[in-house]
Write a structure and sequence with these properties.
Blueprint: E1 17-21, H1 28-39, E2 43-45, H2 46-54, H3 58-65, H4 67-81, E3 88-90, H5 99-108, E4 109-115, H6 118-126, H7 139-154, E5 159-162, H8 168-192
Parallel strand pairs: 1-3, 1-4, 2-3, 4-5
Helix pairs in contact: 1-8, 2-4, 3-4, 4-5, 6-7
């Protein structure tokens, strides 16, 4: 006896790739996995895909080839992923800062900036090793610098969703609400035009 499959939740949000951007520690991967599950879409993590393509970890890529080579590989991987059917894509913190990568994402997907308080992010990233940009640096100093340089690029995302020190599903529901609001606004705009 087979069970009936429940229809996917929010089918209206399943026709375009959703790309999560933001600073390290904001929860792009954790929120992204849960968002993908909620929308019944595949999940991709750009950092994991870059590591798979390079055959080595991100710290090794940075150490052996430098950040410029990493960003170039990241751009090519994201361009390839954006050709896939709709999915949820978590990007590395610097991906959307690259003008070419940002233009690709804005053209082929819906970019959602997950934004959180810097002190919260510093607590989160301070608990994990393996972030090359934090090597021998104070996380709060790095995050302040990144906020200054990256926020103008992140502000070009289609949507901004403020997150906090709450369960990931709270952020997922906020992203879904923002996506639905964008869809409703676009639908209303189409109805108004002659």
């Amino acid at each position: 006896m087979t069970a009936d499959l429940a229809p996917p939740r929010h089918p209206e949000l399943r026709d375009q790739t959703i790309v999560l951007v933001g600073l390290m520690g904001v929860g792009k991967s954790s929120v992204g996995r849960r968002l993908a599950q909620t929308l019944d879409l595949p999940f991709r993590d750009a950092d994991n895909e870059v590591e798979r393509a390079a055959g080595r970890g991100i710290p090794e890529i940075f150490a052996e080839m430098g950040e410029a080579a990493f960003r170039d590989g990241e751009r090519r991987v994201i361009a390839r992923l954006l050709e896939d059917p709709p999915h949820v894509l978590a990007t590395g913190g610097g991906a959307f800062v690259n003008a070419e990568t940002r233009a690709l994402i804005k053209d082929k997907a819906i970019a959602v900036w997950l934004k959180a308080d810097l002190e919260l992010l510093a607590r989160r990233v301070g608990r994990k090793d393996g972030r090359p940009l934090l090597k021998n640096r104070d996380p709060m100093d790095v995050l302040r610098e990144q906020a200054t340089t990256r926020y103008p690029a992140y502000a070009e995302a289609h949507l901004t969703v403020e997150t906090g020190d709450t369960p990931h599903m709270v952020a997922v529901e906020a992203v879904i609400a923002a996506l639905q609001g964008r869809l409703a606004a676009a639908s209303a705009s189409e109805r108004v035009q002659p």
